Polyprenyl synthetase family protein (Rariglobus hedericola), 596 residues
Amino acid sequence: MNSSAAYLRLCDALMENSPALLATDQLLRDTLTLSSGNPGKLIRARLVLAAADAHGLEEGPAERLACAVEYFHIASLLLDDLPCMDDAWTRRGRPCAHKLYGESSAILGALAFINRAYALTGFVFASHPAEIRLQATACLDACLGPAGLVGGQAADLSFAQSDRSAREVAMIAARKTGSLFWLAVYFPALLGAPSQKELHALKALCVYWGLAYQAADDLQDALLNAFESGKTAGRDRALTRPNLAHAIGVPATQARIARLMEQSRRVVERLGATSQRWGYLGGFHREFVEPMVCAVAA
Amino acid sequence: MNSSAAYLRLCDALMENSPALLATDQLLRDTLTLSSGNPGKLIRARLVLAAADAHGLEEGPAERLACAVEYFHIASLLLDDLPCMDDAWTRRGRPCAHKLYGESSAILGALAFINRAYALTGFVFASHPAEIRLQATACLDACLGPAGLVGGQAADLSFAQSDRSAREVAMIAARKTGSLFWLAVYFPALLGAPSQKELHALKALCVYWGLAYQAADDLQDALLNAFESGKTAGRDRALTRPNLAHAIGVPATQARIARLMEQSRRVVERLGATSQRWGYLGGFHREFVEPMVCAVAA
């Protein structure tokens, strides 16, 4: 399937599986419709879809799993944008949900997406062996809890009180952005019952891609304006948030991104050599990760 | 097991399974520790524990399932108390988490509890047949999403713009308070693979108990002061929130509670007659629900 067909398929699936269909409250429904109907690049959802297709899931369950990971991501954006978090005004070129429909609707909308994501995951994994289900549960627990996304966001908000070192920045990036790559790469790969060696390589890939992606995002925040980035830019410095370009400078950030890209390319090649079923990771690296990261890092 | 032993066992389990153990951020850890270390009456967790014991779960998994439902409940309290929701200052006789540690910590704390609750549920149900797991997933989806807790809270906040009828009040109570009774009664009962007739009776019991409990809570808010109730009282009228005692008056509310208690007593008896394993529901009705509801409704 070509890339724009997959994108359109995902846009439809995000509306079809949305919790908006069950919402009777107007503000909640509008929040959910806005959030699932205004997708970004869908990097993570496309990765999950490619993985699910490669590992033999049928069309419906594959889309539902991709929606689940995207809903976790949407929920994190709704909450990150709140006044008590990053206090953002725009997201994907439009006013943030909390600006349009109120903070309570943004919070409840995030909960509705998280809940739906867990339900979709439960339904998709229901017929898989207990061992795979336990691994998937442990993966969600690690990625979304205090050791993952929630902990990363908390450390992000406390960053001004930390030593503001490059190490602290990397730790936060690993938990915040890295966790969502674990959900997009490691989590659906469990469907393919990978060997220990393959699991090891997948973990490394999540780390490299996640760090490169966050570093590119930091560069973008440091260099571009809101019009170009589609979201409230320059916030990291204004709010004393972790930003690699502020911590080590622009040239060193660009060099680090190049190194992470090289490391991930090598992992992708190594995985491709073990089995054809990991071919989608190589395609993804060339088609999306490299162009996206390099566009801002060049 | 007597009631105070079960209570102490649950207090320990709530700390042992808490996401606080994984939190490195001070504010997040303090929020989680405060919330799981200052339990209320643990009505729902005790119901789950009794059900899990009755349906043959071992000690550890039984406690973990009880913690899961209590964590869902704690998360809903953390979020309900926020300034953009009910704007409460005290909870269980202490300052609310957002007053002590900030709104972002309260929100992230709620997410950590929800995530942990789903993980515990996934681990506990992992070895059960697919049919029971699918029912459990569907139950969580219905109870926690826009048709349940999230939708109830949204309707609660929009109540001032509704017709403010007793019907609207009952709909909101069913979604907000009712959903948590479904999690405490219907959800763990799935472990016992109930018949269609038993499922029907369990659903009715959730409705009756949920409505009676919410009506008693409404009466408490309308009649008592903050010192007596342990939380910010009189908020319903101040914020134009749904309150049965405001909608139909105090005597009619008391009469409705008495009727709901009679209806639930009959369902509990009917269930007890079908099988001994539902005996815990009768014990619970006599020991907790009646005294608690009647104390305020008398």
Remarks:
- Chain A has a mean pLDDT of 90.
- The domain at 130-298 of chain A is CATH 1.10.600.10 (Farnesyl Diphosphate Synthase).
